[in-house]
Automatic annotation (TrEMBL):
Anoctamin transmembrane domain sequence ranges: 212-777
Entry GO terms, CC: plasma membrane
Family stated for the protein in its record: Belongs to the anoctamin family.
InterPro entries named among the record's database cross-references: Anoct_dimer (IPR032394), Anoctamin (IPR007632), Anoctamin_TM (IPR049452)
Source domain of life: Eukaryota
Name the UniProt record assigns to this protein: Anoctamin
Gene name of the record: ano5b
Chain ranges of the Anoctamin dimerisation domain: 16-209
MF annotations from Gene Ontology: chloride channel activity; protein dimerization activity
Membrane-related topology note: Multi-pass membrane protein
Transmembrane segments: 223-250, 302-321, 414-435, 462-480, 583-605, 639-658, 742-763
The entry's keywords: Cell membrane, Glycoprotein, Membrane, Transmembrane, Transmembrane helix
Major place of residence: membrane
Location in the cell: Cell membrane; Membrane
Length: 823
C-alpha cells in the first residue's frame, strides 16, 4: 500500500514493553509495520511507526464490516437538465471535482466472491477513507498484553495514547495542499480541496461534497452538506428580515407614539416614577425619545408577519433538509448503514466493561450486554448529575443578575452593562470548560453500546448544558425583565422585601428593544456563537511553533508524517463543537428572531465565512481525521426539531408580552375607534400620588426635576388613578389587552402549527425519484447476483463434468444447494 493511506504513530521513549506487545499483536493481525529511526526525525527524539494494511487484511475486515464496494457501473441517469441551468454556471465547479469517480452499484464486500466486484487494481480498490476505517478498527481492538493473559482492559490504541505509550495516532494527509504533487503515486485530493473549496475566493461556489466525502469520510461530508444547505436557506430568511426592517425605516415618520414622547408639551410634561429605590430619580418621559424611535425599527406591524414567516421557514428548512439528506444517503450508500452499525460496530469500551453475555437474536452469537439494574442505576445517577449542573448554572445566572441590579446603584448604567457582559462572558467560558468534562464523564459512565449511541447521548447532554448557558439571559430579558415589578407603593422584590432589590423595570420604550440589545450586544454570546474566527489565531500560532521547533532538515527531507505530526489533533469532540456553534446560532435566529429581524442576515454573512474557515482548518491546520460513516446529522436532527417547535411558542409570547403591538392594536381598534394612535402614550400610563410613595422608595436626592405644583408621577400599567373607588386596581382595559394577548398566542400558534403540519405532510421526507432509484438498484443487485451465481454454477458443473460425470441425483442436489444459496 502507498504511504498516502498509511497510519503514522509518534512514539515516546517509554514504555517499551507495552509497545512491543502491541506491535507484535498488530503483526499477528496481518498489518505491516515500518519504523523510522529517531535520528532521522526533525527533533531527533521521536520515532514514527508507519502501518501498512495489505490486501488480505483489507479484504478480511471489509468482509467483517460489510463495507459496500462497487460491482457494476450504474446505468441509472444521474439527473436531468433543468431550464435556465446556465444561470447557475458561475457557481458550479468542474465535473471532475464535483464527481471524482463515476456512480456504481454497490454491495457488501464478500471475500469469497472477489470476482463479482470491479477489482482492477487491488492497491486502489479500497479508497483512503475505507483503508483508514479498517486500520483504526484494528488498532482500537488490538490488545497489548501477552498471549495467554486475560487483561481485557489492556486493549486498544486509545488507552495507549492516554497512558503515554504513544503520543499520537493519525492517518496521513495527501501530499502538499498548496502545490500539486510531483510524485504521480501520491493522490492529490487535498490539493483539489484546498484549491476549489478552502480558499475564501471560492465563497460563492458550491461545495465539492463527493470529494469531501471521499477524502474525509461521510460523517464530515454530511456536516458540510448540512452547513451549506442551512446557509442557502438563510438567504430567504435574510431577505424577508431586510424587508421587515426596511418597512420599519420607511414608516419611521408615521410613528405617532414616538412623536408624542419626544414632544416637549406631551412627553416633556409627563413626570415618571423612579425605576429603582433611592438611587433612581424622577425622570421625564421625553428622555426616552431616542430609544422610542429605535424600538419602532424592530417593533412594528411587520414584526408580526416576520414572526409567522419564520415559524413556516423553519419547517421548510427541516423538511427540505430531510429530502436533501435522503438523497445523500442514497448517493453515498448509507441507506442501510445504521442497522449495520448497531449490529457490528460495538464500542471496545462496552466489550471490555460488560462481562455478562447473552445470545443476540439477530446474529445468533453471544455478545456482551449491560444488565437492566445496572443500566437504571447509571441512568438515575446521570439524570441527577445533569439536573444538578443545570440548577447550578441557573443559580449562577441569578447571581450575575443580582450583581447587575446592585451595580445600578453604585456605578453608571454603561459601566454596569459592560461589567455584567464581561462577567457573563467569563462565566460562559468557565462553565463550558466544566460542562464538557462532566458530559463526557456521565456518558462514559452510562457505557453506551455503539459509537452512534455514545455520540447521541453526549450531544443531548452537551446541548442541554449549552442551552441553559447561552439562552438563559435572553429568556430572562424576554419574559421576566420588567414583567413582575408591581406598582408604586407595592413593588416586587427579587429576594423578598428585606433584600431591598427591586425587580428590574424598563423605560417606556418597547421592552422588545431590550431583548434586541441582548441579542446583538453582549460580547459573551456573540464572540463564541457568531464569530467564525474564534480560536483561529491561536491555532495558527500553535501550528507555526510546533513546525518551527527542532526543525533542522530542509523541506525535501521533512517527511509527510512529520508535517502532519505538528498539526493540531482533530479530537473526538471536534465536529461536535462545529455543530454546536451552528445549532446555538440557529436557536438565536429562531427562538428570538421576532426581536431582531436582521439576525438571519448577520447569520448568513457569518456562515459564508464559516464554511470556508472550517474548510481551511480541515485542509491545512488539522491532522487528517479518522474517516467514519454517518447516515445523518444524528441527535442534532431531533434538537433542531425541538428548537423549531419551541421557537413558535417563544415568538408568540414575545409578540404578546414583550412587544407593544397588542396594546397598540387594542387601543387603535377598541379605544381609538380605528382612527389614530394619538393619545396612546397618555392612555398607557397610570397615575400615582407622590405623597403616598414611602421613604424607602423615594430618591435620595432632593432635585426632583419638577416644581412643587407636581403631585403625581406616571408608570407603565393600566390601573385606576388615585381617588377612584378601585384606585390602583387593574382597569378593564388591562383585562381586554390580556385577553387579546392570550387570543393572539392561541391563534398564532395554531396557524403556524397547522401550516407546519400541512407543509410536513405535503413534502415527503424521501423524494420520489430517490425511492424509485433505491427500488431499482435493489432489483438490479438481486438480478446480477442471480446471474453471477448461475454462471458460477455452470463453471462448477463444467469442471465436474471434465473430471467425472455426476449422477442425475447429485446434479439436482447441487443445483438445489446453489439456488438456495442465491435465495
Amino acid at each position: 500500500m502507498s504511504l498516502c493511506g498509511s497510519y503514522a504513530c509518534g512514539l515516546c521513549n517509554y514504555p517499551q514493553e507495552r509497545r512491543r506487545e502491541f506491535e507484535a499483536n498488530l503483526e499477528k493481525a496481518g498489518l505491516e509495520l515500518e519504523t523510522d529511526d529517531k535520528s532521522d526525525s526533525k527533533d531527533q527524539k521521536t520515532y514514527f511507526l508507519k502501518i501498512h494494511a495489505p490486501w488480505e487484511v483489507l479484504a478480511t475486515y471489509a468482509d467483517v464490516l460489510k463495507i459496500k464496494v462497487p460491482f457494476k457501473e450504474s446505468d441509472i441517469p444521474h439527473g436531468q437538465d433543468v431550464p435556465l441551468e446556465w444561470l447557475s454556471h458561475p457557481f458550479r465547479l468542474p465535473e471532475h471535482i464535483m464527481r471524482p469517480q463515476p456512480d456504481y452499484f454497490t454491495y457488501p464486500f464478500d471475500k469469497t466472491k472477489t470476482d463479482f466486484f470491479l477489482i482492477t487494481d487491488k492497491d486502489t480498490f479500497f479508497p483512503p477513507s475505507t483503508r483508514n476505517r479498517i486500520v483504526f478498527y484494528i488498532l482500537a481492538r488490538c490488545p497489548y498484553y501477552k498471549e495467554g493473559r486475560k487483561d481485557k482492559d489492556k486493549t486498544g490504541i486509545k488507552r495507549l495514547l492516554s497512558n503515554g505509550t504513544y503520543t499520537a495516532a493519525f492517518p496521513l494527509h495527501d501530499c502538499r495542499y498548496w502545490k500539486r504533487a510531483r510524485n504521480a503515486e501520491c493522490e492529490s485530493e487535498r490539493y483539489n480541496l484546498y484549491n476549489h473549496w478552502a480558499r475564501f475566493l471560492c465563497f460563492y461556489k458550491e461545495q465539492p461534497l463527493n470529494l469531501i466525502r471521499k477524502y474525509y469520510g461521510e460523517k464530515i461530508g454530511i456536516y458540510f452538506a448540512w452547513l451549506g444547505f442551512y446557509t442557502e436557506m438563510l438567504f430567504f430568511a435574510a431577505v424577508m428580515g431586510v424587508i421587515c426592517f426596511t418597512y420599519g425605516v420607511l414608516s419611521y415618520d408615521d410613528n405617532i407614539s414616538s412623536k408624542e414622547i419626544c414632544d416637549a408639551d406631551i412627553g416633556g410634561s409627563i413626570v415618571m416614577c423612579p425605576l429603582c429605590d433611592k438611587k433612581c430619580p424622577f425622570w421625564r418621559l421625553n428622555s426616552t425619545c431616542l430609544s422610542s424611535w429605535q424600538s419602532h425599527l424592530f417593533d412594528n406591524e411587520g414584526t408580526i408577519f416576520f414572526a409567522i414567516f419564520m415559524g413556516i421557514w423553519v419547517t421548510l428548512f427541516l423538511e427540505f433538509w430531510k429530502r436533501r439528506q435522503a438523497r445523500l444517503e442514497y448517493e453515498w450508500d448509507l441507506v442501510d448503514f445504521e442497522e449495520e452499525q448497531q449490529q457490528l460496530q460495538i464500542r471496545p469500551e462496552f466489550e471490555i466493561r460488560c462481562t455478562n453475555r447473552r445470545l443476540n437474536k439477530i446474529t445468533q452469537e453471544m455478545e456482551p450486554y449491560l444488565p437492566v439494574t445496572s443500566k437504571c442505576a447509571r441512568f438515575c445517577l446521570s439524570a441527577a448529575t445533569v439536573i444538578f449542573w443545570v440548577t447550578q448554572c441557573l443559580c449562577i445566572r441569578v447571581c450575575v443578575r443580582k450583581i447587575q441590579v446592585v451595580g445600578r446603584f453604585i456605578t453608571p448604567q454603561l459601566a454596569t452593562s459592560v461589567t455584567a457582559s464581561c462577567i457573563n462572558f467569563v462565566i460562559i467560558m468557565i462553565l463550558n470548560f466544566f460542562y464538557e468534562r462532566v458530559a463526557i464523564w456521565i456518558t462514559d459512565m452510562e457505557i453506551p453500546k455503539t459509537h452512534l449511541e455514545y455520540e447521541n447521548r453526549l450531544t443531548m447532554k452537551m446541548f442541554l448544558f449549552q442551552f441553559v448557558n447561552y439562552y438563559s439571559s435572553c429568556f430572562y430579558v424576554a419574559f421576566f425583565k420588567g414583567k413582575f415589578v408591581g406598582h408604586p407603593g407595592k413593588y416586587s422584590y427579587m429576594f423578598g422585601k428585606r433584600s431591598k432589590l427591586r425587580n428590574e423595570e424598563v423605560s417606556f420604550s418597547s421592552p422588545l428593544l431590550h431583548l434586541t440589545e441582548t441579542l446583538k450586544g453582549p460580547v459573551s454570546q456573540q464572540f463564541d456563537v457568531c464569530f467564525p474566527f474564534h480560536g483561529l489565531l491561536d491555532r495558527l500560532m500553535r501550528n507555526w511553533w510546533s513546525s518551527r521547533k527542532g526543525r533542522h532538515n530542509p523541506e525535501n527531507h521533512y517527511s509527510r508524517w512529520e508535517q502532519d505530526h505538528v498539526l493540531q489533533n482533530f479530537t473526538q469532540l471536534g465536529l461536535f463543537y462545529e455543530y454546536l456553534e451552528m445549532v446555538v446560532q440557529f436557536g438565536f435566529i429562531t427562538l428570538f428572531v421576532a426581536s431582531f429581524p436582521l439576525a438571519p442576515l448577520l447569520a448568513l454573512f457569518n456562515n459564508i465565512l464559516e464554511i470556508r474557515v472550517d474548510a481551511w482548518k480541515f485542509t491545512t491546520q488539522f491532522r487528517r481525521p479518522v474517516a467514519s460513516k454517518a447516515r445523518n446529522i444524528g441527535a442534532w436532527q431531533e434538537i433542531l426539531n425541538a428548537v423549531a417547535i419551541l421557537s413558535v411558542v417563544t415568538n408568540a409570547f414575545i409578540m404578546a408580552f414583550t412587544s407593544d403591538m397588542i396594546p397598540r392594536m387594542v387601543y387603535l381598534y377598541a379605544y381609538g375607534k380605528g382612527a389614530s394612535m394619538r393619545g396612546y402614550v397618555n392612555n398607557s400610563l397610570s397615575i400615582y400620588n407622590i405623597s403616598r410613595i414611602s421613604e424607602e422608595n423615594m430618591p435620595d436626592t432632593q432635585d426632583y426635576w419638577f416644581d412643587n405644583s407636581t403631585t403625581t408621577c406616571r408608570y407603565r400599567d393600566y390601573r385606576y388613578p388615585p381617588g377612584h373607588e378601585r384606585e390602583y386596581n387593574h382597569t378593564m382595559q388591562f383585562w381586554h389587552i390580556l385577553a387579546a394577548k392570550m387570543a393572539f398566542i392561541i391563534i398564532m400558534e395554531h396557524v403556524v402549527f397547522v401550516v407546519k403540519f400541512f407543509v410536513a405532510w405535503m413534502i415527503p421526507d424521501v423524494p420520489s425519484d430517490v425511492k424509485a432509484r433505491i427500488k431499482r438498484e435493489r432489483y438490479l443487485i438481486q438480478e446480477y447476483l442471480h446471474n453471477y451465481e448461475v454462471e458460477r454454477l455452470k463453471l462448477q458443473l463444467s469442471a465436474s463434468f471434465m473430471t467425472e460425470p455426476p449422477s442425475e441425483t447429485s446434479l439436482v442436489a447441487d443445483k438445489h444447494e446453489v439456488l438456495s444459496e442465491c435465495l
